[in-house]
């Protein structure tokens, strides 16, 4: 089993910066990572640029264009998709916890849900064995914050799951990539099959 990449804990979703890097990539121009990302700090800017480039590299060209030029909801959903594609922990939490609860009409996510998922996951990922309580707390905070910024939950404090309304253009871009990724948006298997039969060509 592939090791989880936990480097997302150095930043949140950072939508504006993700859009900036996506546009620079499409326009084939460099990013001023010192001033545009690092607020004058070279090391911080370079670290964030590497993180955003890693996420963007997981997107198809169509998805990248949607991130750069779509409306706000579209941009949030594509930025979230890139995070799920890059960080297996976020993907698995979204599918195994958020989606499963949402599909049985349980819209409340609690700290205990996270801890239960963490413990189950730890059995399969020994790289997590050395995590301290502080590290686990930060991991939960950043995971929930990314979900909030992406519009999957209403707020970190309340953590109520928000149903996802997906534009056809986004759905098609995911289906042509891999329909399984629709699961991170809490879409049911029946809807995934129906959409795939409708749009997969």
Please describe the structure with a list of short key phrases separated by commas or semicolons:
mainly alpha; globular; 201 residues; 60% helix
Explain what the structure shows.
By secondary structure, this protein is mainly alpha-helical. Helices cover 60% and strands 0% of the residues. It is built from 10 helices and no strands. The longest helix is centred in the C-terminal third of the chain and has 18 residues, at 133-150. It is globular and about 45 Å long. The model has no long low-confidence stretch (mean pLDDT 92).
Characterize the biggest β-sheet.
none
Query: Rounded to an integer, what's the Rg over CA atoms?
Result: 17 Å
Number of separate strands: 0
The proportion of residues forming helix, as a percent range, comes to 55-70%
Overall mean pLDDT stands at 92
Count of alpha/pi helices: 10
Task: Specify the structural class.
Answer: mainly alpha
Separation of termini?
32 Å
Low-pLDDT stretches: none
Q: Globular, elongated, flat, extended or rod-shaped: what is the shape?
A: globular
> Strand percentage, roughly?
under 5%
Run of helices and strands:
HHHHHHHHHH
Topology, please?
Layout: H1 15-26, H2 33-37, H3 42-56, H4 61-69, H5 72-86, H6 88-103, H7 111-122, H8 133-150, H9 168-175, H10 189-199
Give a summary of the structure in a few sentences.
The protein has helices at residues 15-26, 33-37, 42-56, 61-69, 72-86, 88-103, 111-122, 133-150, 168-175, 189-199.
């Amino acid at each position: 089993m592939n090791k989880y990449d936990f480097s997302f804990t150095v930043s949140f979703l950072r939508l504006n910066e993700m859009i900036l890097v996506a546009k620079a990539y499409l326009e084939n121009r460099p990013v001023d990572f010192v001033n545009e990302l690092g607020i004058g700090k070279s090391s911080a800017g370079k670290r964030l640029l590497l993180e955003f480039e890693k996420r963007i590299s997981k997107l198809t060209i169509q998805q990248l264009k949607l991130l750069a030029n779509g409306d706000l909801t579209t941009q949030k959903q594509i930025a979230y998709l890139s995070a799920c594609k890059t960080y297996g922990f976020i993907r698995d939490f979204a599918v195994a916890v958020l989606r499963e609860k949402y599909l049985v009409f349980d819209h409340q996510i609690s700290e205990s849900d996270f801890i239960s998922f963490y413990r189950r996951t730890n059995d399969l990922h020994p790289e997590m064995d050395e995590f301290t309580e502080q590290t686990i707390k930060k991991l939960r905070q950043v995971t929930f914050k990314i979900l909030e910024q992406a519009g999957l939950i209403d707020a970190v404090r309340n953590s109520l799951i928000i149903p996802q309304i997906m534009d056809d253009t986004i759905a098609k871009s995911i289906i042509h990539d891999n329909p399984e990724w629709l699961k991170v948006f809490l879409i049911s298997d029946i809807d995934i099959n129906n959409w795939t039969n409708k749009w997969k060509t």
